[in-house]
Automatic annotation (TrEMBL):
It comes from Halomonas litopenaei. This is Mannitol dehydrogenase family protein. Residues 15-271 form the Mannitol dehydrogenase N-terminal domain. Keywords: NAD, Oxidoreductase. InterPro entries: 6-PGluconate_DH-like_C_sf (IPR008927), 6PGD_dom2 (IPR013328), Mannitol_DH (IPR000669), Mannitol_DH/Oxidoreductase (IPR050988), Mannitol_DH_C (IPR013118), Mannitol_DH_CS (IPR023027), Mannitol_DH_N (IPR013131), NAD(P)-bd_dom_sf (IPR036291). It comes from the Bacteria. PROSITE patterns: MANNITOL_DHGENASE. The keyword NAD applies. The lineage of its organism: Bacteria, Pseudomonadati, Pseudomonadota, Gammaproteobacteria, Oceanospirillales. It holds the Pfam family Mannitol_dh. Residues 281-472 form the Mannitol dehydrogenase C-terminal domain. The keyword NAD applies.
Length: 485
């Protein structure tokens, strides 16, 4: 059954600026706001959505379409809700355009961010867009882009740089700050975002850093909706349903948003749309990162090095389903401390059912991107807790072995793939230096302290398990390796 929902014609004030206009923003935050606007008629919370780095085509495409686009929410391949979204009022691009020009709409974005009507800034700039060390959470002050923002703070390129400049302008104008709400899959995402911004501000003006520290709220949030990158097949399927829209996105019907309720400048009444406003997000965030995202990463590396293409293809195989159940219940759930009433076995079953949605083509190559930024929170912190409690983590160890292989850019049957990761060139060097010696290779990867907590690297039993896993994968293949778990 296909259910159509049209967007009403509302002119809104812009109350929220979003950084990172990707697939997820269009199918998650924008949908909650659109539903809120339709129900309440409150026009204070329209969106200005900006890209800082890539996807200028999407920014311009949405402008050309009057900022209206479609979200196709699939329960399964037979049941879809086609929602037209009209809550975005403005789109901007501050990255490098096709002529190599940097910062096309930067002044427009900074002007928007200093409007008194803007009270919230949301972000989905991916984990690497915060320029933080994945293990310590400290700002990467030696990164070339952060260095450029330190040298030229009035023409910033990074998300932290843009927010620091906008907050400095608001402070100088006597305006209250906006609230900053990270919607990226990072642990303690609010606290980490605060770190990035306060540490960058401190390099410019310690009074500004103190003001941000005292005045700006950085609530944490847990976000969940599977929104794969669009494929030609997705556009063709939407065409069959009567939707010709280059800015459309396809996603699952499920959606969740848990937010720490700390919005001193006000916020939309999100609860009415099903958002859970809570005092502490951490248990839900850790549960989702370790169980859902941790499972995704297991499939991504073990599947991708064996030629499996999508999440659906992987979970259609009993050996992968068994691996995920075992990982989720024995290695992830056992590290969680959930409020009463949360049934983790049921959560694991629900996740398996979501992964088996036959209408999504969620490519493992997409999930495999940026492993250096993702693995600490998905696998490594939980693994360390279990090992310190005297337990083993065989699924995580095999997953890590698969990730190490994946970063060589060569699958188990010697096919090449692209490795998209800010540390990709470092990985290639490690493979060139130690590729012939699994023990040395694993030791070299475990010694990367900006990815692997030192206490985990020091667990010899874990290093041995990863090395065994690596040997098994290359000598006996995936199926045999999984069967020994
Ligand atoms: P996407 O590939 O469609 O968009 C990525 C966005 O991040 C683009 O706007 C891009 O310009 C921006 N970006 C990338 N690197 C950046 C950098 N260094 N600085 C500034 N901006 C940068 O990806 P999508 O699906 O929108 O996901 C984005 C993030 O949203 C994920 O990394 C994750 O943290 C979060 N998320 C995504 C979900 C999904 O299923 N797609 C679900 C839950 C969270
Ligand atoms: C995925 C997530 O790309 C990835 O790394 O694990 O984007 C995942 O689809 C979402 O977190 C689901 O909410």
């Amino acid at each position: 059954m296909t259910h159509f929902v049209e967007a009403p014609n509302f002119a809104c004030d812009i109350g929220i600026v979003h950084l990172g206009l990707g697939a997820f923003h269009r199918a998650h935050q924008a949908v909650y706001l659109a539903r809120y606007l339709e129900r309440s008629g409150d026009t204070a919370w329209g969106l200005c959505s900006a890209n800082l780095r890539s996807s200028v085509g999407l920014v311009d495409g949405l402008r050309a379409a009057g900022h209206r686009y479609h979200v196709a929410e699939f329960t399964d391949s037979d049941n879809v809700t086609l929602r037209e979204i009209g809550v975005i009022q403005q789109t901007l691009f501050t990255g490098r355009d096709s002529e190599g020009q940097q910062g096309r709409d930067l002044e427009a974005l900074l002007t928007r961010l200093t409007s008194s009507k803007v009270r919230i800034v949301t972000l989905t700039v991916t984990e690497k867009g915060y320029f933080l060390s994945p293990t310590s959470g400290d700002l990467l002050v030696d990164d070339a882009m952060i260095k450029a923002d330190i040298a030229s703070p009035n023409t910033p390129q990074t998300a932290p740089g843009i927010l620091v400049e906008a907050l400095a302008r608001r402070r100088a104008a006597g305006l209250p700050p906006f609230t900053v709400l990270s919607c990226d899959n990072m642990p303690d995402n609010g606290r980490r975002t605060r770190n990035a911004i306060v540490q960058l501000a401190a390099l410019r003006d310690s009074d500004l850093a103190d003001w941000i520290s005292d005045q700006v709220a950085f609530p944490c949030s847990m976000v969940d909706r599977i929104v794969p990158a669009m494929t030609d097949a997705d556009f063709a399927r939407l065409g069959e349903l009567g939707v010709e829209d280059p800015n459309a996105v396809v996603c699952e019907a499920f959606s969740q948003w848990v937010i720490e309720d700390d919005f001193p400048q006000g916020r939309p009444d999100w609860e009415a749309e099903g958002v859970e406003m809570v005092t502490e997000v951490a248990p839900f965030e850790t549960m989702k990162l370790r169980m859902l995202n941790g499972s995704h990463s297991l499939l991504a590396y073990l599947g991708a090095i064996d030629g499996v293409e999508t999440v659906y293809d992987a979970v259609s195989r009993p050996e992968f389903r068994a691996l995920l159940r075992r990982y989720m219940l024995k290695e992830a759930a056992t590290t969680l401390h959930m409020p009463d009433g949360v049934d983790l076995e049921r959560y694991a079953d629900e996740l398996l059912a979501r992964f088996a949605n036959d209408s999504l083509r969620h490519r493992l190559a997409q999930i495999a991107m940026d492993g250096s930024q993702k693995l600490p929170q998905r696998w490594l912190h939980g693994a360390l807790e279990r090992l310190q409690d005297g337990h083993e983590v065989p699924c995580t160890a095999l997953g890590l072995a698969a990730w190490i292989r994946y970063t060589s850019g060569v699958s188990l049957d010697d096919r090449r793939h692209e490795v998209s990761d800010p540390l990709a060139s470092r990985f290639i060097e490690l493979h060139e230096r130690h590729g012939d010696d699994p023990e040395a290779l694993v030791a070299a990867f475990l010694a990367q302290q900006d990815i692997v907590p030192a206490a985990l690297a020091a667990q010899q039993g874990f290093a041995d398990a990863v090395t065994d896993g690596y040997r098994r994968l290359i000598n006996t293949g995936l199926a045999a390796s999984l069967s020994t778990l």
